[in-house]
Amino acid sequence: MADKDTAVMHLEDLPGHGASAADLEFLSNFPPEAKKKVLRKIFIIEGLVTVFMAVLCYLLLLDSPSLSPNWLSQDEIRYLEVRQLVSNNHSGHHKGFNKKIIFSVLTDWKIYLLILGNWSNAVPNYALKFSMPEIIKSMGYKSATAQLMTIPPYTVGAISAYGFSVFADRFSWRMPFIVIPQCSLIASFGILFSKAASIESNIALCYFAICLACFGMYPILPGVNAWNVCNIVNPHKRAVAIGYLICVGNAGGIIGSYIYKSDEKPRYPTGYGTSLAFAAAGLVAALSLEFCLWSANKGKARLTLSEIEELYTEEQLRDMEEKSPLFKYTL
Questions:
Q1: Closest alpha carbon to 210 in 145, 155, 259
Q2: Are 147 and 133 in contact (CB under 8 A)?
């Protein structure tokens, strides 16, 4: 999957992030019991829409060319199946539950570095989307103005996510287009951590830092997901790895939901400090993964094709998947 395609899918989250913050700000004026009733209805409606879309995906989303006879000819189906076999050396259709694939994903060291990279987005992202109106109100703005002031940061994030993904696809290199946004995140939370105590005296700088945070947050997740997909040969393992990375990565939102404490405003040392720490950890993880994959490719390059053919059979090379000396990791 291209980085650009992944970015477009994640851009759909941005309006929801703004709406979530707006909902919470709007409900802050409600009595506690009324707030619970409204929130309950909102969650039920959102849940029903999600379940409905899941059912539609199950019924309409096709997982192999052989299940697409209504809009592909038999020659096109055969062509796609042959291309899939040639590119992956694995059948595109899988029957039954395979524990070996689950185990191979759980023991793959690469995915845990990618999860740390994912958390460098998830923790600051979930935290900031709920607290941004309050942060902007701390600058001295009223509630309505504070809501309007959340629009530019999310716009910057949308443009940034798409722009970085285009260049990542063009250069076929993931690491720089994850690391640069992570550096932006570190800089933005460093500014907020040091200046938030006197935020009303540093309105322009702190608002710039919020925009810079959104600029850095949103390109990370598409880049991490695309990097994961590029380095897994077996389509069945790839499918499991995508789900595992997204599931565990989004669990970072649990942390992010509790780090901005109301009794710490306007400085929010726990919120800004934790976000800064996860951004730094993600940066180290991305650089570590790049170095490890580069070293692995360098080691594989030492073997010539004739030496590989002498050491391994075709079946052994296929079973080795991405560990095969013929496979080169995407950096």
A1: 155
A2: yes
CA distances for 194 relative to 41, 180, 199, 211, angstroms: 40, 21, 10, 16
Sequence-distant (6+) residues with CB within 8 A of 108 are: 241
Domains of the chain: 3-30+94-323 (1.20.1250.20)
Orientation angle between helical segments 203-217 and 109-138, nearest 10 degrees: 150
pTM of the model: 0.80
Exposed (0-12), middle (13-18) or buried (19+): which is 173, by Cβ within 10 Å? middle
DSSP sequence for 97-163: --HHHHHHHHT-HHHHHHHHHHHHHHHHHHHHHHHHHHHHHHTT--HHHHHHTTHHHHHHHHHHHHH
Structural tokens at position 34 = 């009324």
Q: Which amino acid is at 279?
A: A
Cβ(230)–Cβ(327) under 8 Å? no
Residue among 141, 118, 136, 122 at smallest CA distance from 21: 136
Please state at what angle helix 109-138 crosses helix 235-250, rounded to 10 degrees.
Answer: 30
CA–CA dist 216, 281 (Å, integer): 14
Q: Cβ contacts of residue 153 below 8 Å, gap of 6+?
A: 132, 210, 211, 213, 214
d(CA 129, CA 16): 9
Residues of the chain predicted below pLDDT 70: 1-30, 63, 84-97, 130, 143-146
Which position has the token pair 């002498």?
Answer: 310
Peptide bond into 266 cis (omega under 30): yes
DSSP E strand stretches across 200-260 = none
Q: What proportions of the chain, in percent to the nearest 5, are helix, strand and coil?
A: 80, 0, 20
CA R_g for the chain: 23
> Average model confidence (pLDDT) for the chain?
84
Could you tell me which of 326, 297, 47, 61 has the C-alpha nearest to residue 173?
A: 297
